[in-house]
Amino acid sequence: xxxxxxxxxxxxxxxxxxxxxxxxxxxxxxxxxxxxxxxxxxxxxxxxxxxxxxxxxxxxxxxxxxxxxxxxxxxxxxxxxxxxxxxxxxxxxxxxxxxxxxxxxxxxxxxxxxxxxxxxxxxxxxxxxxxxxxxxxxxxxxxxxxxxxxxxxxxxxxxxxxxxxxxxxxxxxxxxxxxxxxxxxxxxxxxxxxxxxxxxxxxxxxxxxxxxxxxxxxxxxxxxxxxxxxxxxxxxxxxxxxxxxxxxxxxxxxxxxxxxxxxxxxxxxxxxxxxxxxxxxxxxxxxxxxxxxxxxxxxxxxxxxxxxxxxxxxxxxxxxxxxxxxxxxxxxxxxxxxxxxxxxxxxx
Length: 348
Ligand code: ATP
Ligand code: MG
Ligand code: FE
Prior knowledge:
- This is tRNA N6-adenosine threonylcarbamoyltransferase.
- The chain is α/β, with parallel strands linked by helices.
- The chain contains 10 helices and 10 strands.
- The protein folds into 2 domains: 154 residues, 2-Layer Sandwich (Nucleotidyltransferase, domain 5), CATH 3.30.420; 168 residues, 2-Layer Sandwich (Nucleotidyltransferase, domain 5), CATH 3.30.420.
- Helix 4 packs across helix 10, helix 7 runs antiparallel to helix 8 and helix 8 runs parallel beside helix 9.
């Protein structure tokens, strides 16, 4: 079965073709980062308009790269939410318009399910069940994953998401948007002993997170330096920030594995691309004989491949999940725990 995936929840337009027999055939992505950079963040109206400009050329590129015709597509999976309403509407209308024109069924996918299942696209995929740490620009959640659509929320952030903390702290240091990769690179030159920033909720028994205090701590030290902050100061602060956030993320993952008695940990979402986080998780897991799985770097942040793949995973278990119903609706807010497993997977 050949599934087309369409992603447009925020500032990336992603198209991909996943075949249940042959795997990922092709994918194409356009990131709007450069366009939003001068505003210091995503401008929703500009995002929607750019998705409109990019979607069809990316579709054509994906079909050409995969060497298939549009008529070969069996089903179309698109991100139905959560995300920016206008941006989601573009992807949904492209998917449903194409479905109507080609007489193919469509299926709305939860964006976070796409992130969550993206490590399964890797050459060495994890088996269910596992603990998943979803660390993206809008979410920070620990989940127990027993299969497609079988997600139990164990803990989440009470305020900022990890990616948001990276971006806001980077902004305070005068780094561009999105600041995650930039603050991470700068931290490599920092002195780990220079700043001990708070590690919020590190010792709390539960699996929730809180990162807004850490961002405030960054603001406080930046202010202490006022205008004469030098590059080394910035690097030291970046290092203090990265060490603090990585410590908390690693500790909570280890607690989740211990509490559930599971041995496999899966990381998903943009912050999963972070080199310091990966190094610290690998070290902590090796010590305890846990296995850690990551998406390929290119599939950590938003992309169409994870949406095509999530669609294919669902359709493999429940072929009727895609329908020839094209009156699309999007869900800008959509709690992941409202998802159900594919029907055929339910016990009889
Ligand atoms: P959501 O999926 O929750 O709706 P999103 O789609 O905006 O949010 P992603 O695309 O998964 O989030 O990830 C983007 C985030 O990942 C940004 O906050 C970015 O700064 C962060 N990020 C990307 N690469 C890195 C890195 N190397 N180190 C730290 N953070 C990173
Ligand atoms: Mg993005
Ligand atoms: Fe995302």
